Give the backbone structure.
Amino acid sequence: MAEIDIRSIKDFLGIDSFYLKCIIGFIGSFFLTFISIPKIIRVSYKKGLMARPKERSSHLKETPNLGGISIFYSVSIMSSICAYELFSSYIFLFSAIIVLFFIGLMDDILVVAPNKKFYAQIVTALMISVGSNVRIGHFFGIFGINLLPYWFSILFTVLIFIFLINAFNLIDGIDGLASGIAILVCCAFIITFWRLGSINYPMIVLALTIIGSLLAFLHYNFSKKYKIFMGDTGSMIIGFLLSFMGVKFLNLFLLQYPFGTQVYWIQSAPAIVIAILIIPIIDTLGVFMIRIYKRRSPFKADKNHMHHRYLRLGLSHKQVSLCMVAENVIIILVAYFLRHINVHLLLVIILSLGLIFSFLPLLIKNNKSNT
């Protein structure tokens, strides 16, 4: 039905169906999020469904935290209309999103035990890796490893999905950061998918629906009068979808022509994905390193995140978010221009830059105190 509707509109307007899907997906997702959030805010205040400031919070007053509902709502509707090929090709994709939506919503309203969220993340990762066969099956020669055994590729993919879902959840600590990074990641994937041919058009449309929704969400997230957070509902869904895009990007380089040669090939593909997702990756690794060094549980919350260090320099939420997005852009550009060098050297460069940017606020603060 969606195919007939899109084609009839295309014939009427004289626009290529792919571009029409991009336009409808982006505008529709933006519009649905923009009009639904005020209603969610109203219900949140009326029912007392608010995020209350805690010791490690970067906010000082109670704020609605159900913005993830509007993100789920708009992305699900517009992607099912404009990128329906994804849901027909990967039948467990939408089911996995629904599982994350409900566990995230329960956590935002009632607070769910961490182990229950962890189990839900395992289930969704298994649904997409086993059920839809979207998995990391090749190491591209990193550490001398190429093709992975099936069981190990499933295990590794599940771990990567869980790590990235939680990484996006962890960076959602200040206004605009998780949304800004997610928009940048989607833009980077759009460019890479575009360069690799029309087979990736549904992924581009999906990324545009996410961007549209997050741009509308940012309007309210930065607002003083109508402020709202995306909550675990939004951060887990966004983290899952961006993980899905990353694995799909890697799988493109495993496609082969009938006579056995690669359709596309670049050994640094894993390094490029890491560069695109570097801020949530390096922030999570950095936090875990600090907690382990201080002999604390790596899963116990604290104020050692990258954005906390920037806030202590006296920057506003918006300034910190822009700064961290800019750092991510720099690392992506470095990875792109150095994509043909040795993959191990490129990984070292990317991770080193990530660590430098992560701990740069500490160096700036020390210099200020010394002067």
